[in-house]
Amino acid sequence: MISYNPKDWITFIFRFHRSDTVRRLFPMIVLISLYSAGIAYLELEIWQLSAKSYVRNISVMHTLLGFVISFLLVFRTNTAYERWWEGRRLWGTLVNNSRNLAMKLAALLHAEAEERDFFRAMIPAYAAALQRHLRSEETRIELFDKLPAGVQQKMDLEKHIPNQIAALLYNRVLLLAEQGKLKAEHLFFLNLELQSFTEVCGACERIKNTPIPYSYSVFIKKFIFFYIMTLPFGYVFSLGYYVIPIVAFIFYVLASLEIIAEEIEEPFGADENDLPLGMISRNIQMHIGELI
Amino acid sequence: MISYNPKDWITFIFRFHRSDTVRRLFPMIVLISLYSAGIAYLELEIWQLSAKSYVRNISVMHTLLGFVISFLLVFRTNTAYERWWEGRRLWGTLVNNSRNLAMKLAALLHAEAEERDFFRAMIPAYAAALQRHLRSEETRIELFDKLPAGVQQKMDLEKHIPNQIAALLYNRVLLLAEQGKLKAEHLFFLNLELQSFTEVCGACERIKNTPIPYSYSVFIKKFIFFYIMTLPFGYVFSLGYYVIPIVAFIFYVLASLEIIAEEIEEPFGADENDLPLGMISRNIQMHIGELI
Amino acid sequence: MISYNPKDWITFIFRFHRSDTVRRLFPMIVLISLYSAGIAYLELEIWQLSAKSYVRNISVMHTLLGFVISFLLVFRTNTAYERWWEGRRLWGTLVNNSRNLAMKLAALLHAEAEERDFFRAMIPAYAAALQRHLRSEETRIELFDKLPAGVQQKMDLEKHIPNQIAALLYNRVLLLAEQGKLKAEHLFFLNLELQSFTEVCGACERIKNTPIPYSYSVFIKKFIFFYIMTLPFGYVFSLGYYVIPIVAFIFYVLASLEIIAEEIEEPFGADENDLPLGMISRNIQMHIGELI
Amino acid sequence: MISYNPKDWITFIFRFHRSDTVRRLFPMIVLISLYSAGIAYLELEIWQLSAKSYVRNISVMHTLLGFVISFLLVFRTNTAYERWWEGRRLWGTLVNNSRNLAMKLAALLHAEAEERDFFRAMIPAYAAALQRHLRSEETRIELFDKLPAGVQQKMDLEKHIPNQIAALLYNRVLLLAEQGKLKAEHLFFLNLELQSFTEVCGACERIKNTPIPYSYSVFIKKFIFFYIMTLPFGYVFSLGYYVIPIVAFIFYVLASLEIIAEEIEEPFGADENDLPLGMISRNIQMHIGELI
Amino acid sequence: MISYNPKDWITFIFRFHRSDTVRRLFPMIVLISLYSAGIAYLELEIWQLSAKSYVRNISVMHTLLGFVISFLLVFRTNTAYERWWEGRRLWGTLVNNSRNLAMKLAALLHAEAEERDFFRAMIPAYAAALQRHLRSEETRIELFDKLPAGVQQKMDLEKHIPNQIAALLYNRVLLLAEQGKLKAEHLFFLNLELQSFTEVCGACERIKNTPIPYSYSVFIKKFIFFYIMTLPFGYVFSLGYYVIPIVAFIFYVLASLEIIAEEIEEPFGADENDLPLGMISRNIQMHIGELI
């Protein structure tokens, strides 16, 4: 994720950041411009269509469908943003639950240094493992370096790592209850936090594995394509060669919305607009270290 | 569900997938084109209506109602998508609760291999049975093959299968509590997970059995039909025979939105855009096997 | 509620179901057509207004306000649909909680046939009583026929029936706890289900008793009325006598949206689009019978 | 709140209720009409601007900004309605929790008549006190008349009354637990209901004390004002003196939406559209009396 | 936050408050006016473009993109408002939980004056510390003045203060449980309130640290800029020098929406529209003082 000051308009307008859609769409914008230029040349110089030609009125279609395409792009933008924001909220829940679990365990186990070491290592390990899991990176073995050897050997890096960490947390808490270091009532006191790790993980997997329905994705792209491709025909009559920058700008606007939506609808990757999972993980580690 | 790479524009635009609305609407598009051609022929060649004819201005109605039809299609798209996404979320909840229940039971029953066998078979069986229930497929008896004979005989395949599995889970947990293998406090620790199976099932049945109100479904279809049928009359004057592809394209856009919405508003079927219930069920089975 | 196949376009377009807005608005559509014909006759034949007349441009107002009226109708449609869907969700919750309560009690009370009889009768009685309560029908005494005589006599049909049933459920559960047939911990295990009956009832009463604010209802109807009444004046110039079907069609579209919204915003009645409370109640009865 | 039959169109259209925006905006509508008449007189009679004058095209601005103003009013309408509906939902929660608490306590304390008297008086007192608190009315001392003298003396009418009632409820419940009339487990059984009184109160205070951000309120009003004030300039050319009723009608539409939103965004007052807090309070009193 | 009477239109329209966007955009409005004047001068006086020039029709682009820019600004407004309102709701939760926790502890610890002193100081300290934390102000040591010396010394002002206060609350509650002043069941009775402090804090941090995705922020600003910059070219033909105030007004409208959204999307600062955190904190302190 890029940190930025939203009030700095000048920079926004004149700097072309690496993830700026102007840069990413640049080749397409050039192609569309050449295409528009070609259509304009044909209509104005070669065919010399008269102003009475029916072709001029093709633009009524663009006006009529202007609503629909705008609505569709808004639908796309809204759903993509909601997924992005839900992803962010899920990681916020992870932060909250990690903190609450650490505080509760610190208060319950104030005399058991060894147990607290275990949880101090394992709670932040969940966030780190979830991050790798969502980005499909390999989980590095060092992640578990600081853990007692017993734990390290139990991990099977081929299987679902976050699940294994959650299971270890459950096991340890129930072991403490069996040993009488925690009371049965405390189980319940810790229940929501323990549960929520797996809920966050499942919800992140859901967002990651379920893009918007295939048909919408196809339909929106086809629609933008034909809308833009037919745009120069009618507008050459009223705009002459000015049709070139204007079609290019309209393409830039419509395609930008689609491209940004594509990027943020899966917010766990390493794209520029994706969520700062690494930073959140490190924060969890730092705060848990302070709390338990 | 179709897996796809949302960033691959070329494929989206030029390939016509089996579930693509272009293919599914093709016969209708041909019919609408012939109809428009007929109207154009009548107006231009037979009746030779003058450009002063009032018929030309019928298009003001289409502009005025352009807003309303766009809004309606957006309403349709939003509600259909929300139902689809709610369905996905429900199955995500099923995944989370299956995992959490398995982890908790594994930690509580680490010494009871037989009990764990029971839950290892029954928890994923719920998802599999729910899938069949929602698709109204017959539940195959093999589903319960691995269970102890006692359980198998108790199932009545004529009745509501998911309810029976949930009831078996409740019974087993409470039996363990009676036998002292679980404490009374543990009941409460397991409560939310046990409850949520039935909640997911009920919510999926709600989505499946309640399409949007009949009146909206009728009204939107009637509206699209009359809108498209009257479209050529006015536009022939400004578009000539170009009216044919343009009306066809507008029809394609409006009808596609309605057709996609119809498909995804009941997301548990086996349509191309429906949710991958089979895959989710198999994932639950795999992960539960690792956890308990 | 009408069961229908949303993919059957032909039926939708050409059949005029009893609840179809075309049929219900028919008298008004005729009146509006006559009115438009009158205006057209006056302007074209009697006053013979020239095309330069300012009256012609009254239609700019309709274009300008076209947005606003569309937005308002969408707002109306969205809020009405949300209320309808919330009502459906509440009854879904009732289904889920009835099932969960039955399963839990069946597992807890497997040896107490009499108690299970009580709950097998009372749990579905709640849904049936709520249905009658929401439709303001009299609760038939037979509803409680199968209950032990003691319960039957306690019901006061003049008072709030669902509350009395919920209170009976609470009393029985707490009596079982006092008698030692349930443990104190089990109270908590059953708490959410017991509570939720009253929550569903209260929420349904809220939807039923609170239509959208009076001012919106007035304003939207006044707005549609004046919009349609002034529509012919300007459009006669560009449409001639075609203004008659066109104004009628625009009226049909706008009024349909308002009429459907009126119908579904109170979803517990017996209108064609209302929720199938009877069917849901019967389903609860059937499934509870299987479970306890 | 006004009770009304939403299906009675005739009354809605031709009756001008006291809270109707037509009546409330009437003086402004007259002023705007005079202003438009003045502009029309100046342009048509005094300056006699030719049809070629640039002034005629000022209306392009109104078309272009027509979208934005519509969107803003929809945003305003949506947020105001959501606050109104959230307020209604909160009072619905109060109803539900009062009922559930009464039922639970009635079942737990069936032998303690005195305790039940206390709760029969105090639970509905919360709703009544909250109503007065939200309307900033003085709490009448009679409200607490029926309570045992001890309670009455403890109330400090200068302080936050609902908080004091909630605290009394907590104290009594915990006293009963200390006295052994309730078990420790029952505390938990009653927890959600006890908590929710304060949650409803806090949420109502939030809605009451937080209008939408000042900048939006200013901006929307300024925008409507300038939009309407500049409207006659351009439209005189196409509408002549018809500009007077048309500008007045457009003003009526835009200002109505803002005025209704202002009224319902704070739904706890005594405006015509506000929530029927008094009726809900009385209902709570009646039902609690039946239940405990 | 500014307190205001939303029904006082005159003040809103004619007073230019310090935070009014008219004042804040004034320099830009002047620049845009000069720019428009320059374009108008060039086109009308220097180049003397004929009315047939293609440049005149550049405005078709502005009409076509008018939808998209309106939609985008509405998307921006909605998301910013939702964040602002979520922030307000979070602080409302803080109020509710502080009150509920105080009431519960007051009822549980009515005999322990010292313990109640501790919580009377610490509960409001959380809100005060969270306010400073969110505004990145230094936490003043006086905040902890009234606390027993032991607590004061434990605070490390370099670390996350709200976390430390939450941990102190947990520790004290669990210490009371160990000492037998609270029962194990009471832990659970207090659990939700204790948890929620950290949840509110985490959610506020999430809103504060996650602006909307960088790409949207860039894209909207670039889009407004180019939209406004190209606006005079086409409109000079139909508006002459009137293009100057009109372009300025359109700029004012579009930029105001973006500027207000920027301000309220991070609602915890000290901007005029930001939430009144200080007032809420003081209210918590006052009410907690009354309750415990």
UniProtKB/TrEMBL annotation, chains A, B, C, D, E:
InterPro entries linked: YneE/VCCN1/2-like
Predominant location: membrane
Which terms are listed as keywords in the entry? Answer: Cell membrane, Ion transport, Membrane, Transmembrane, Transmembrane helix, Transport
Compartments, record wording: Cell membrane
Q: Which residues cross the membrane?
A: 25-42, 54-75, 224-254
- Keyword Cell cycle recorded: no
Stated membrane topology is: Multi-pass membrane protein
Classification via Pfam families: Bestrophin_2
Q: What is this protein called?
A: Bestrophin-like protein
Upper classification of the organism: Bacteria, Pseudomonadati, Bacteroidota, Saprospiria, Saprospirales
